[in-house]
Protein backbone atom coordinates (compact mmCIF):
# COMPACT_ATOMS: atom_id res chain seq x y z
CA UNK A 1 0.00 0.00 0.00
CA UNK A 2 1.38 3.45 -0.87
CA UNK A 3 1.92 6.07 1.86
CA UNK A 4 -0.92 8.22 0.48
CA UNK A 5 -3.36 5.32 0.68
CA UNK A 6 -2.65 4.96 4.39
CA UNK A 7 -3.48 8.58 5.10
CA UNK A 8 -6.86 9.00 6.78
CA UNK A 9 -9.56 10.22 4.39
CA UNK A 10 -11.78 12.78 6.10
CA UNK A 11 -14.86 14.65 4.90
CA UNK A 12 -14.54 18.40 5.44
CA UNK A 13 -17.61 20.61 5.84
CA UNK A 14 -16.42 24.19 6.31
CA UNK A 15 -19.85 25.39 7.43
CA UNK A 16 -21.60 28.74 7.45
CA UNK A 17 -20.79 32.17 8.94
CA UNK A 18 -17.31 32.10 10.47
CA UNK A 19 -17.00 28.42 9.40
CA UNK A 20 -14.84 29.01 6.28
CA UNK A 21 -12.46 31.33 8.19
CA UNK A 22 -11.87 29.04 11.17
CA UNK A 23 -11.72 25.94 8.95
CA UNK A 24 -8.98 27.42 6.75
CA UNK A 25 -7.02 28.42 9.86
CA UNK A 26 -7.46 24.94 11.34
CA UNK A 27 -6.26 23.12 8.21
CA UNK A 28 -3.13 25.31 8.21
CA UNK A 29 -2.44 24.52 11.88
CA UNK A 30 -3.11 20.78 11.44
CA UNK A 31 -0.66 20.61 8.53
CA UNK A 32 1.96 22.57 10.49
CA UNK A 33 1.52 20.16 13.43
CA UNK A 34 2.33 17.25 11.10
CA UNK A 35 -1.21 15.97 10.68
CA UNK A 36 -1.30 13.85 7.53
CA UNK A 37 -4.90 13.81 6.32
CA UNK A 38 -6.57 13.86 2.91
CA UNK A 39 -9.54 16.24 3.19
CA UNK A 40 -12.65 15.74 1.05
CA UNK A 41 -14.66 18.99 0.89
CA UNK A 42 -18.46 18.70 1.08
CA UNK A 43 -21.25 21.20 1.71
CA UNK A 44 -24.10 21.39 4.22
CA UNK A 45 -26.24 23.99 5.99
CA UNK A 46 -27.20 27.40 4.58
CA UNK A 47 -24.43 27.30 1.96
CA UNK A 48 -25.69 23.97 0.60
CA UNK A 49 -29.33 25.11 0.74
CA UNK A 50 -28.47 28.15 -1.40
CA UNK A 51 -26.18 26.32 -3.81
CA UNK A 52 -27.97 22.97 -4.18
CA UNK A 53 -31.44 23.63 -2.76
CA UNK A 54 -30.75 21.07 -0.02
CA UNK A 55 -29.12 21.73 3.39
CA UNK A 56 -27.85 18.14 3.50
CA UNK A 57 -27.04 17.03 -0.08
CA UNK A 58 -26.88 13.30 -0.82
CA UNK A 59 -23.26 13.72 -1.96
CA UNK A 60 -22.29 14.95 1.53
CA UNK A 61 -23.99 12.00 3.24
CA UNK A 62 -22.29 9.68 0.76
CA UNK A 63 -18.88 11.24 1.48
CA UNK A 64 -19.28 10.71 5.26
CA UNK A 65 -20.52 7.14 4.65
CA UNK A 66 -17.43 6.43 2.59
CA UNK A 67 -14.81 8.07 4.84
CA UNK A 68 -16.55 7.53 8.21
CA UNK A 69 -14.87 10.58 9.75
CA UNK A 70 -15.77 14.25 9.23
CA UNK A 71 -14.64 17.64 10.49
CA UNK A 72 -17.56 20.04 10.44
CA UNK A 73 -17.77 23.80 10.87
CA UNK A 74 -20.88 25.37 12.40
CA UNK A 75 -24.08 25.25 10.35
CA UNK A 76 -26.82 27.87 10.37
CA UNK A 77 -30.32 26.65 11.20
CA UNK A 78 -33.34 28.88 10.50
CA UNK A 79 -35.31 29.52 13.71
CA UNK A 80 -39.01 28.57 13.84
CA UNK A 81 -39.46 27.76 10.14
CA UNK A 82 -37.34 26.36 7.29
CA UNK A 83 -35.27 23.16 7.28
CA UNK A 84 -34.62 21.13 10.43
CA UNK A 85 -31.22 21.08 12.10
CA UNK A 86 -28.63 19.38 9.89
CA UNK A 87 -26.55 18.69 13.02
CA UNK A 88 -29.36 16.63 14.55
CA UNK A 89 -30.06 14.90 11.20
CA UNK A 90 -26.39 13.86 10.87
CA UNK A 91 -26.24 12.50 14.43
CA UNK A 92 -29.36 10.43 13.77
CA UNK A 93 -28.41 9.27 10.28
CA UNK A 94 -25.02 7.96 11.43
CA UNK A 95 -26.22 6.84 14.89
CA UNK A 96 -23.55 9.00 16.56
CA UNK A 97 -24.74 8.17 20.06
CA UNK A 98 -21.82 9.54 22.08
CA UNK A 99 -21.32 13.29 22.37
CA UNK A 100 -17.88 13.90 23.86
CA UNK A 101 -17.10 17.33 25.30
CA UNK A 102 -13.90 17.94 27.22
CA UNK A 103 -13.58 21.12 29.33
CA UNK A 104 -10.01 21.82 30.37
CA UNK A 105 -8.57 24.97 31.96
CA UNK A 106 -6.13 26.62 29.54
CA UNK A 107 -3.72 28.95 31.35
CA UNK A 108 -4.23 32.51 30.12
CA UNK A 109 -7.80 32.05 28.91
CA UNK A 110 -9.98 34.34 31.04
CA UNK A 111 -12.12 32.21 33.38
CA UNK A 112 -13.27 32.17 37.01
CA UNK A 113 -11.63 28.80 37.72
CA UNK A 114 -8.30 27.02 37.51
CA UNK A 115 -7.61 23.30 37.48
CA UNK A 116 -10.77 22.19 35.66
CA UNK A 117 -10.36 18.98 33.66
CA UNK A 118 -13.73 17.35 32.96
CA UNK A 119 -14.92 15.13 30.11
CA UNK A 120 -18.67 15.02 29.62
CA UNK A 121 -20.14 12.04 27.77
CA UNK A 122 -23.70 12.83 26.69
CA UNK A 123 -26.15 10.33 25.19
CA UNK A 124 -27.02 11.83 21.81
CA UNK A 125 -30.05 9.95 20.44
CA UNK A 126 -32.68 9.27 23.13
CA UNK A 127 -34.45 11.01 26.04
CA UNK A 128 -36.71 14.02 25.41
CA UNK A 129 -34.88 14.57 22.11
CA UNK A 130 -36.30 11.41 20.52
CA UNK A 131 -38.78 13.75 18.81
CA UNK A 132 -42.03 12.34 20.27
CA UNK A 133 -44.17 15.41 20.96
CA UNK A 134 -47.83 16.26 20.45
CA UNK A 135 -50.72 18.37 21.63
CA UNK A 136 -53.03 16.37 23.85
CA UNK A 137 -56.30 17.97 22.64
CA UNK A 138 -57.62 19.70 19.51
CA UNK A 139 -57.68 23.07 21.30
CA UNK A 140 -53.95 22.75 21.88
CA UNK A 141 -54.39 23.62 25.53
CA UNK A 142 -51.64 21.21 26.56
CA UNK A 143 -48.71 19.45 24.94
CA UNK A 144 -46.55 16.53 25.92
CA UNK A 145 -43.00 15.47 25.06
CA UNK A 146 -42.00 11.90 25.80
CA UNK A 147 -38.56 10.92 27.08
CA UNK A 148 -37.42 7.52 25.83
CA UNK A 149 -34.61 5.81 27.74
CA UNK A 150 -33.73 2.27 26.64
CA UNK A 151 -31.46 -0.27 28.32
CA UNK A 152 -29.65 -0.68 24.99
CA UNK A 153 -29.03 3.07 24.62
CA UNK A 154 -28.02 3.42 28.27
CA UNK A 155 -25.66 0.48 28.23
CA UNK A 156 -23.79 1.56 25.11
CA UNK A 157 -23.24 5.16 26.28
CA UNK A 158 -22.14 4.13 29.78
CA UNK A 159 -19.86 1.44 28.30
CA UNK A 160 -18.43 4.13 26.02
CA UNK A 161 -17.72 6.34 29.04
CA UNK A 162 -15.86 3.59 30.90
CA UNK A 163 -13.90 2.58 27.81
CA UNK A 164 -12.96 6.25 27.31
CA UNK A 165 -11.86 6.44 30.96
CA UNK A 166 -9.59 3.42 30.48
CA UNK A 167 -8.11 4.69 27.22
CA UNK A 168 -7.37 8.13 28.66
CA UNK A 169 -6.21 7.16 32.16
CA UNK A 170 -9.24 8.71 33.83
CA UNK A 171 -10.03 7.68 37.40
CA UNK A 172 -13.74 8.31 38.05
CA UNK A 173 -17.05 8.24 36.17
CA UNK A 174 -19.96 10.14 37.73
CA UNK A 175 -23.41 9.21 36.39
CA UNK A 176 -25.84 12.14 36.50
CA UNK A 177 -29.60 11.53 36.74
CA UNK A 178 -32.90 12.49 38.38
CA UNK A 179 -33.92 8.97 39.45
CA UNK A 180 -35.40 10.22 42.75
CA UNK A 181 -38.30 11.72 40.74
CA UNK A 182 -38.14 10.00 37.32
CA UNK A 183 -37.97 6.59 38.92
CA UNK A 184 -38.56 4.50 35.81
CA UNK A 185 -36.70 6.20 32.95
CA UNK A 186 -33.83 7.65 34.98
CA UNK A 187 -33.94 4.66 37.32
CA UNK A 188 -33.27 2.43 34.31
CA UNK A 189 -30.27 4.58 33.32
CA UNK A 190 -28.90 4.47 36.88
CA UNK A 191 -29.45 0.70 37.29
CA UNK A 192 -27.71 0.09 33.97
CA UNK A 193 -24.81 2.29 35.12
CA UNK A 194 -24.40 0.27 38.33
CA UNK A 195 -24.32 -2.97 36.32
CA UNK A 196 -21.80 -1.67 33.77
CA UNK A 197 -19.58 -0.22 36.54
CA UNK A 198 -19.10 -3.76 37.98
CA UNK A 199 -17.21 -4.64 34.78
CA UNK A 200 -14.71 -1.80 35.44
CA UNK A 201 -13.36 -2.30 38.98
CA UNK A 202 -10.31 -0.18 38.07
CA UNK A 203 -12.46 2.95 37.56
CA UNK A 204 -14.26 4.62 40.49
CA UNK A 205 -18.01 5.10 39.97
CA UNK A 206 -20.55 7.29 41.70
CA UNK A 207 -23.88 8.88 40.84
CA UNK A 208 -25.30 12.31 41.48
CA UNK A 209 -28.68 14.00 41.10
CA UNK A 210 -28.61 16.58 38.33
CA UNK A 211 -29.58 19.63 40.40
CA UNK A 212 -26.91 18.89 43.00
CA UNK A 213 -24.46 18.32 40.14
CA UNK A 214 -25.15 21.78 38.70
CA UNK A 215 -24.38 23.36 42.08
CA UNK A 216 -21.27 21.28 42.77
CA UNK A 217 -19.90 21.95 39.27
CA UNK A 218 -20.05 25.66 40.03
CA UNK A 219 -18.60 25.39 43.55
CA UNK A 220 -15.96 22.64 43.17
CA UNK A 221 -15.52 21.79 39.48
CA UNK A 222 -12.07 20.30 40.17
CA UNK A 223 -13.82 17.45 42.06
CA UNK A 224 -15.13 16.04 38.75
CA UNK A 225 -13.29 13.77 36.34
CA UNK A 226 -15.78 12.25 33.85
CA UNK A 227 -19.56 12.68 33.71
CA UNK A 228 -21.93 10.40 31.81
CA UNK A 229 -25.54 11.45 31.44
CA UNK A 230 -28.67 11.45 29.29
CA UNK A 231 -29.40 13.79 26.38
CA UNK A 232 -31.23 16.72 28.02
CA UNK A 233 -29.08 17.00 31.16
CA UNK A 234 -25.97 16.53 29.00
CA UNK A 235 -27.04 19.32 26.64
CA UNK A 236 -27.34 21.77 29.53
CA UNK A 237 -24.39 20.65 31.65
CA UNK A 238 -21.97 20.51 28.73
CA UNK A 239 -22.48 24.24 28.12
CA UNK A 240 -22.08 24.79 31.85
CA UNK A 241 -18.68 23.08 31.87
CA UNK A 242 -17.63 25.07 28.78
CA UNK A 243 -18.38 28.17 30.85
CA UNK A 244 -16.02 26.93 33.59
CA UNK A 245 -13.04 27.14 31.24
CA UNK A 246 -13.70 30.29 29.22
CA UNK A 247 -16.77 29.62 27.11
CA UNK A 248 -17.63 28.90 23.50
CA UNK A 249 -14.39 30.13 21.94
CA UNK A 250 -12.46 27.24 23.50
CA UNK A 251 -15.02 24.38 23.62
CA UNK A 252 -14.38 21.42 21.27
CA UNK A 253 -16.66 18.43 20.70
CA UNK A 254 -17.14 15.13 18.92
CA UNK A 255 -20.08 12.91 17.99
CA UNK A 256 -19.03 9.28 17.95
CA UNK A 257 -20.74 6.11 16.72
CA UNK A 258 -19.68 2.50 16.33
CA UNK A 259 -17.11 1.22 13.83
CA UNK A 260 -14.97 4.38 13.95
CA UNK A 261 -17.71 6.65 12.57
CA UNK A 262 -17.34 10.16 14.00
CA UNK A 263 -18.19 13.78 13.22
CA UNK A 264 -16.02 16.37 14.97
CA UNK A 265 -17.43 19.87 15.58
CA UNK A 266 -16.78 22.82 17.86
CA UNK A 267 -19.59 23.69 20.27
CA UNK A 268 -20.15 27.26 19.06
CA UNK A 269 -22.37 28.38 16.17
CA UNK A 270 -21.85 30.41 13.01
CA UNK A 271 -21.32 33.75 14.86
CA UNK A 272 -23.09 35.79 12.14
CA UNK A 273 -22.26 39.01 14.02
CA UNK A 274 -18.54 38.68 13.24
CA UNK A 275 -18.57 36.49 10.08
CA UNK A 276 -16.31 37.61 7.22
CA UNK A 277 -14.34 40.08 9.36
CA UNK A 278 -11.29 37.90 9.99
CA UNK A 279 -11.61 38.17 13.78
CA UNK A 280 -13.13 34.78 14.73
CA UNK A 281 -11.27 32.69 17.29
CA UNK A 282 -10.32 29.33 15.70
CA UNK A 283 -9.28 27.76 19.05
CA UNK A 284 -12.39 25.59 19.53
CA UNK A 285 -12.14 24.30 15.95
CA UNK A 286 -8.40 23.60 16.36
CA UNK A 287 -9.01 21.73 19.66
CA UNK A 288 -11.73 19.80 17.82
CA UNK A 289 -9.21 18.94 15.08
CA UNK A 290 -6.82 17.73 17.81
CA UNK A 291 -9.54 15.31 18.97
CA UNK A 292 -9.88 14.15 15.36
CA UNK A 293 -6.10 13.61 15.11
CA UNK A 294 -6.26 11.45 18.26
CA UNK A 295 -9.15 9.50 16.70
CA UNK A 296 -7.14 8.72 13.53
CA UNK A 297 -4.15 7.73 15.67
CA UNK A 298 -2.02 10.80 14.97
CA UNK A 299 -1.49 11.56 18.65
CA UNK A 300 1.89 13.26 18.15
CA UNK A 301 0.35 15.82 15.76
CA UNK A 302 -2.55 16.32 18.19
CA UNK A 303 -0.13 17.05 21.04
CA UNK A 304 1.87 19.48 18.90
CA UNK A 305 -1.30 21.32 17.91
CA UNK A 306 -2.47 21.58 21.56
CA UNK A 307 1.01 22.70 22.63
CA UNK A 308 0.98 25.52 20.06
CA UNK A 309 -2.50 26.60 21.10
CA UNK A 310 -1.73 26.57 24.82
CA UNK A 311 1.48 28.56 24.32
CA UNK A 312 -0.22 31.17 22.11
CA UNK A 313 -3.16 31.52 24.51
CA UNK A 314 -0.88 31.86 27.54
CA UNK A 315 0.47 35.13 26.09
CA UNK A 316 -1.87 38.15 26.22
CA UNK A 317 -0.15 39.53 23.10
CA UNK A 318 -1.15 36.55 20.99
CA UNK A 319 -4.83 36.08 21.82
CA UNK A 320 -7.88 36.88 19.70
CA UNK A 321 -10.22 39.76 20.47
CA UNK A 322 -12.90 37.64 22.21
CA UNK A 323 -10.26 36.63 24.80
CA UNK A 324 -9.06 40.17 25.39
CA UNK A 325 -6.25 40.09 22.80
CA UNK A 326 -5.69 42.05 19.60
CA UNK A 327 -5.06 39.39 16.96
CA UNK A 328 -7.37 38.36 14.15
CA UNK A 329 -7.81 34.78 12.92
CA UNK A 330 -4.83 34.73 10.53
CA UNK A 331 -2.29 36.29 12.92
CA UNK A 332 -3.44 34.09 15.80
CA UNK A 333 -2.95 31.04 13.56
CA UNK A 334 0.59 32.22 12.77
CA UNK A 335 1.24 32.57 16.52
CA UNK A 336 -0.06 29.04 17.18
CA UNK A 337 2.17 27.60 14.45
CA UNK A 338 5.21 29.55 15.68
CA UNK A 339 4.57 28.31 19.24
CA UNK A 340 4.53 24.64 18.17
CA UNK A 341 8.31 24.74 17.87
P1 LIG B 1 -22.96 31.46 18.24
O1 LIG B 1 -22.15 30.46 18.97
O2 LIG B 1 -22.84 31.50 16.77
O3 LIG B 1 -22.60 32.94 18.78
C1 LIG B 1 -22.77 33.37 20.14
C2 LIG B 1 -21.78 34.52 20.44
O4 LIG B 1 -20.45 33.98 20.57
C3 LIG B 1 -21.71 35.57 19.32
O5 LIG B 1 -21.53 36.84 19.90
C4 LIG B 1 -20.47 35.18 18.54
O6 LIG B 1 -19.83 36.27 17.90
C5 LIG B 1 -19.58 34.57 19.63
N1 LIG B 1 -18.71 33.51 19.08
C6 LIG B 1 -19.09 32.24 18.78
N2 LIG B 1 -18.04 31.56 18.29
C7 LIG B 1 -16.99 32.41 18.27
C8 LIG B 1 -15.64 32.29 17.86
N3 LIG B 1 -15.16 31.14 17.36
N4 LIG B 1 -14.85 33.38 17.96
C9 LIG B 1 -15.30 34.54 18.45
N5 LIG B 1 -16.58 34.72 18.88
C10 LIG B 1 -17.41 33.66 18.77
O7 LIG B 1 -24.48 31.23 18.67
P2 LIG B 1 -25.84 31.82 18.07
O8 LIG B 1 -25.66 33.27 17.73
O9 LIG B 1 -26.87 31.42 19.03
O10 LIG B 1 -26.13 31.00 16.74
C11 LIG B 1 -25.84 31.48 15.42
C12 LIG B 1 -26.18 30.37 14.42
O11 LIG B 1 -25.35 29.23 14.65
C13 LIG B 1 -27.63 29.86 14.47
O12 LIG B 1 -28.08 29.68 13.13
C14 LIG B 1 -27.52 28.53 15.16
O13 LIG B 1 -28.52 27.63 14.77
C15 LIG B 1 -26.15 28.05 14.70
N6 LIG B 1 -25.50 27.07 15.58
C16 LIG B 1 -24.87 26.02 15.01
C17 LIG B 1 -24.19 25.10 15.77
C18 LIG B 1 -23.49 23.98 15.07
O14 LIG B 1 -23.46 23.91 13.87
N7 LIG B 1 -22.88 23.04 15.80
C19 LIG B 1 -24.14 25.21 17.23
C20 LIG B 1 -24.79 26.39 17.76
C21 LIG B 1 -25.46 27.28 16.95
Mean pLDDT: 94
In what order do the strands lie side by side in the largest sheet?
A: 2-1-3-12-11-4-5-10-8-9
Number of helices: 12
Biggest sheet details: 10 strands, mixed
Shape: globular
Order of helices and strands: HEHEHHEHEEEEHEHEHEHEEHHH
Q: List cofactors, ions and other ligands.
A: 1,4-dihydronicotinamide adenine dinucleotide
Which structural class do you get from the secondary structure elements?
alpha/beta
- Work out the radius of gyration: 20 Å
Range of strand content: 15-25%
Count of extended strands: 12
Amino-to-carboxy terminus distance: 32 Å
Helix-residue proportion: 40-55%
Poorly predicted ranges (pLDDT <50, ≥5 residues)? none
What does this molecule look like?
The chain has helices at residues 3-6, 19-32, 46-52, 58-67, 86-93, 151-167, 185-198, 210-219, 231-244, 283-295, 299-314, 329-340, and strands spanning 9-13, 38-42, 69-72, 98-104, 117-123, 133-135, 143-145, 172-177, 204-209, 226-229, 254-256, 262-265. Helices cover 41% and strands 17% of the residues. The chain has 341 residues and is α/β, with parallel strands linked by helices. The strands form two sheets. A ten-stranded mixed β-sheet has the order 2-1-3-12-11-4-5-10-8-9, sandwiched between helices. A two-stranded antiparallel sheet has the order 6-7. The site of 1,4-dihydronicotinamide adenine dinucleotide has 21 residues, from loops.
Amino acid sequence: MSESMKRPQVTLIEGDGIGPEITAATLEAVAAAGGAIDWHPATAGMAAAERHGDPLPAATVESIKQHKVALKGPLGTPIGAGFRSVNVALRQQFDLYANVRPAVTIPGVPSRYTGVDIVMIRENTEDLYAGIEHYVDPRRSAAESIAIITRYGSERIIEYAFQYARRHGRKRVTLVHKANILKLSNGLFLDTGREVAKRYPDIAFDDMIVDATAMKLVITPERFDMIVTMNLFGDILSDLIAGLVGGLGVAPGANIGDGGCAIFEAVHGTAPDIAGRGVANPTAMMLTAAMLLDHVEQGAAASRLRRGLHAALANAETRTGDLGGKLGTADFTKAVIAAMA
